[in-house]
Amino acid sequence: MRPTPRFLQIGTAGAVLVGVGVLAKSPVAVLGGVALGCWLLVEQYTALRSFAQATERLDVDVSPVRTAAIVDEPLSVTVDATLARPVDTTIEVAIDLPPAPSTGMRLRH
Prior knowledge:
The protein has three helices and two strands; from the N terminus they run H-H-E-E-H. By secondary structure, the protein is of the alpha+beta class. The protein has a two-stranded antiparallel ribbon. Helix 1 (5-23) packs antiparallel against helix 2 (27-57).
């Protein structure tokens, strides 16, 4: 998971608050920075659980359009992705090529 600009801004604000609080000997500023850090950790945990639930509920079925492949001819596949229940995250399905097409291996008749 990559940090978003919002995550970085809030993390920076929390770190600055802790730093200023330590330098100014202000426990309120330190607590404010710690509270921001805790909030970020809770948000990360919530996102991680949401991603895990989406993965558990996602069923992906990949099947070729036809059963026979012809050398040097493209082969179409059908991808069917379904969820058992709705989730609160965006899902993107990417299908990797099997080793044979990506290495140039040819099928024999």
